[in-house]
Amino acid sequence: MLEFLTSDGIIPSLRATSKKQALQELAKRAAALSGQHERAVFDTLLEREKLGTTGVGRGIAIPHGKLPTLDRVHGLFARLEHAIDFDAVDEQPVDLIFLLIAPEAAGADHLKALARVSRLLRDQRLCEKLRGCETADGILALLSETEAANAA
């Protein structure tokens, strides 16, 4: 269902002690998956954070950005080993991160992907299941099943 997310884009247990470190680790993985330079991905994410936090509350962050040389939207999902301060709007620590990077020209596609992820992660039952899931395939199955049920 989530065509921009594969099991390679899922980190079931990310070790990070800060927002910056989490974004660096995610940028590294996103670069490997998308063929982009790690620094370009990281800089794009930092620029977006400067506009306002992507920590949306309830332990969730949705960092995102656009890169000129991308061909399509790419997603990554990480479950953190320990919740970290992410400057979230509710001032609560974050332990679930869904990262999106999109082509610069992908206005509507980027917004649709953000809306889909946001809608999915508003489901508190899903988030609790994600917090208890320890495998990439299990996390992907949970996200896909929930999106399929929401689309029906």
Report on the architecture of this protein.
This protein is of the alpha/beta class and about 150 residues long. It has one domain: 3-Layer(aba) Sandwich (Mannitol-specific EII, Chain A). Helix content is about 45%, strand content about 25%. The chain is built from 5 helices and 6 strands. It has helices at about 20-35, 40-50, 105-120, 125-130, 135-150; strands at about 10-15, 55, 60, 65, 75-85, 95-105. Strands 1, 2, 3, 4, 5 and 6 form a 6-stranded mixed sheet that branches. Strand 2 and strand 3 form a beta hairpin. Helix 1 crosses helix 2. The longest helix has 16 residues, at about 20-35.
Low-confidence stretches: none
- The ordered H/E elements are EHHEEEEEHHH
Question: What value does the Rg take, in angstroms?
Answer: 14 Å
Helix count, DSSP H or I runs of 4 or more residues: 5
Strand content: 15-25%
When the domains are counted, the total is 1
Q: In CATH terms, what is the architecture?
A: 3-Layer(aba) Sandwich
Return the structural class.
alpha/beta
Average pLDDT score: 93
CATH homologous superfamily title = Mannitol-specific EII, Chain A
Would you give the CATH topology?
A: Mannitol-specific EII, Chain A
Per the principal axes of the C-alpha atoms, what is the gross shape? globular
Overall CATH class: Alpha Beta
